[in-house]
Amino acid sequence: MLNTMRIKRLPPGQSWVEEPMVYDIGPVPPARLEDYRLRLSGEVTKPIELDWSEVQALPRTHVRRDFHCVTTWSVRGIVWEGIPTRILIDRVSVAPDVRWVLVRCRDGYSTDVPIDAFARRDALLADRMNGSILAPEHGAPLRLVVPCLYAWKSAKYVEELEFLSERRPGFWEQRGYHDRGDPWREERFRANPRGTKEAGA
Ligand SMILES: Nc1nc2c(c(=O)[nH]1)N[C@H]1C(S)=C(S)[C@@H](COP(=O)(O)O)O[C@H]1N2
Ligand SMILES: [Mo]
């Protein structure tokens, strides 16, 4: 009885691993806090640019969430700390017809995230992971974490959040990966979502 009531924790097609594997499209860009800027742009009333001290002054949160990469590994219970995405949405007054957030990163990576997933209470811009300052290869100084989607949407080395009413596909989305990427629906690829095409993301 108890067993049948257990909530399934691992999304379909995934396997547990102990540590997240570092996945990067290129070399890890250096994190220089003195010239760090976070830009919030697009369809907003008040576009802003924040330096590192302004980022640090924002309200903070922490979450513990599983992390699912589309290449089929999942890591249990990573603790992320940082700024809730909702704070940033309020700060710039995002227009009501915004549907997507295009995230741009210092390594040239980008990803587009549906606004409902981006705005969830467990989504954040993290500067700490499992109790320590984010390691360079995990996205320092600041990475997006959207735990309800595959990990390719959790962009590292974030520089800009552009709020859009019309979708603009990011790096992996231009290469056939799913617009949304919900691991529970196995939204891996746009065509043939559960396909066996070799996963790069
Ligand atoms: N800027 C940037 N962010 C990125 C990537 C990348 O190549 N560049 N790779 C993505 C992919 S495919 C995954 S699985 C996760 C991996 O996070 P990790 O390297 O911290 O384990 O980062 C995502 N964010
Ligand atoms: Mo990934």
How would you describe this protein?
It is a single chain. This protein is mainly β and 201 residues long. It has a single domain (12-21, 34-185), classed as Oxidoreductase, molybdopterin-binding domain (Sulfite Oxidase, Chain A, domain 2, Alpha-Beta Complex). The protein is 10% helix and 31% strand. The chain has four helices and eleven strands. The strands form two sheets. Strands 1, 4, 5, 8, 9 and 10 form a six-stranded mixed β-sheet that branches. A hairpin with a 4-residue loop joins strand 6 (100-105) and strand 7. The longest helix has 8 residues, at 85-92. Residues 23, 69-71, 151-152, 201 line the site of molybdenum atom.
Calculate the terminal CA-CA distance, rounded to whole Å.
39 Å
CATH topology label: Sulfite Oxidase, Chain A, domain 2
β content, as a range?
25-35%
User: How many H/I helices?
Assistant: 4
